[in-house]
Design a protein that fits this description.
Glutaredoxin; 5-stranded mixed sheet
């Protein structure tokens, strides 16, 4: 399934829905939802699954497709967002990992699928600011319909999916064992080990741990069955 978005720039566009954050306001519903965020694990999509297609806008509204990475020996798809404490905890490592492996030819892309009406901190405007602040040198895409997240069975932020040259899934799960507050340093160990195996022509270990993070913020009535 390939998803294309019709982009608009009107006054009520999602791309312009940032006033609550810009003016330092917090709507009470958003505040309540923040503190109810669930610790959600990866669904662990079956290994060997073909990479679902996507065609989504980046922070400059340029459409980026899975086919743009056709010449890459591997493709890493990361579901992240701006506001999640679990993503904030690893944001520096995400930037470093992308620098380390992007330079070795790995295609890397991040996708934000959150409901930005209730979570305006994750809006495209704020995504652009976050990408600049964090030093992300990979495309950061907005999945407004949330169809791409569903196609990947993504459940949490962060959630990682690594595909080989044939675009078959070889790794899904956690970055490493570090979580906010558990005292374990962020290293990217698990994902880096999978990337290293793949780049030397080996299959990553099949014993893989789920990622754990905030649940993807689904629009009302759009929650997936999984």
């Amino acid at each position: 399934m390939k998803v294309r978005l019709a982009l608009t720039g009107g006054r009520n566009s999602i791309w312009n829905n940032t006033r609550n954050v810009e003016h330092g306001l917090d709507n009470s519903r958003q505040g309540r939802q923040f503190f109810r965020m669930a610790r959600t694990p990866s669904t662990m999509l079956p290994l060997g699954t073909p990479a679902p297609a996507f065609c989504l806008p980046d922070t400059s509204r340029r459409l980026v497709s899975v086919t743009d990475f056709a010449d890459k020996p591997a493709l890493l798809v990361m579901f992240i967002c701006n506001h999640c404490p679990y993503v904030k905890h690893v944001r520096a490592e995400l930037a470093k990992l992308a620098q380390d492996y992007g330079s070795r030819g790995v295609g890397i892309v991040a996708i934000n699928s959150n409901d930005v009406v209730n979570y305006p901190e994750d809006s495209p405007t704020n995504m652009a600011a976050e990408a600049k602040s964090a030093g992300f040198d990979f495309p950061y895409l907005f999945d407004e319909s949330q169809a791409v997240a569903k196609a990947y069975r993504a459940a949490c932020t962060p959630d990682f999916f690594l595909f080989d040259r044939d675009r078959k899934l070889v790794y899904r799960g956690q970055l490493d064992d570090s979580r906010p507050g558990n005292g374990i340093p962020v290293s990217g160990r698990d994902l880096r080990a999978a990337l290293e195996s793949l780049l030397v022509g080996k299959s990553p270990a099949v014993e893989q741990k789920p990622s754990l993070g905030c649940n993807i913020k689904w629009k009302a009535g759009n929650e997936p069955a999984y």
